[in-house]
């Protein structure tokens, strides 16, 4: 089902990437919301993207991109064309990682929370997810005040956990949240 991608690179999102972000985040094919089975409107996705570019908000996003190549475009129909890349060639988005930093209540430091990681199904198992996680590690390493990187995943997302065991340390925590309106707590 998945194919490896041999020539990709990672980079931070730019203002010109907004439509590609909305598409890979909320599109009708091979998008983050399809994978996660959630509903996010394009308007909400646009607001999230705007935060990535707001210097007053500690929210960031990196893309994994490949150069546009007409001969293999048919093999990867769900790539998002984002326009001209750093080498003057058109690019397709094949994945992203979004993350934020926040204060650490136990030390005079900050921590980096990897919020979302997504790789197009046609580009999984080729190292793209690992490279996107590495961009978070690199970001933390460039900022002396960030002393920890962490993330969470669904217990049923076994494929992701195979990757996470290679690049991270399982901490053993379970996540709880406030019930939404109409939901009951688990112990009722």
From TrEMBL:
This is Unnamed protein product. GO terms for molecular function: acyltransferase activity, transferring groups other than amino-acyl groups. CDD domains: NAT_SF. It comes from Ambrosiozyma monospora. Residues 33-188 form the N-acetyltransferase domain. Pfam families: Acetyltransf_1. Signal peptide: none annotated. InterPro entries: Acyl_CoA_acyltransferase, GNAT_dom. PROSITE patterns: GNAT. It comes from the Eukaryota.
């Amino acid at each position: 089902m998945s194919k490896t991608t041999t020539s990709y690179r990672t980079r931070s999102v730019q203002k010109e990437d907004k439509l590609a972000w909305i598409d890979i985040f909320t599109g009708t094919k091979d998008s983050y919301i399809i994978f996660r089975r959630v509903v996010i409107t394009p308007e909400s996705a646009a607001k999230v993207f705007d935060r990535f570019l707001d210097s007053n908000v500690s929210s960031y996003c990196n893309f994994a991109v490949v150069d546009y190549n007409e001969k293999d475009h048919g093999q990867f129909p769900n790539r998002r064309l984002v326009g001209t890349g750093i080498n003057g060639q058109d690019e397709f988005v094949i994945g992203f990682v979004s993350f934020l930093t926040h204060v650490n209540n136990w030390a005079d430091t900050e921590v980096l929370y990897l919020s979302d990681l997504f790789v197009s199904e046609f580009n999984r198992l080729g190292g793209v997810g690992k490279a996107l996680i590495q961009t978070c590690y690199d970001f933390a390493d460039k900022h002396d005040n960030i002393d920890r990187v962490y993330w969470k995943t669904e217990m049923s997302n076994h494929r992701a956990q195979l990757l996470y065991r290679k690049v991270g340390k399982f901490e053993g925590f379970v996540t709880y949240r406030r019930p939404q309106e109409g939901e009951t707590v688990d112990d009722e």
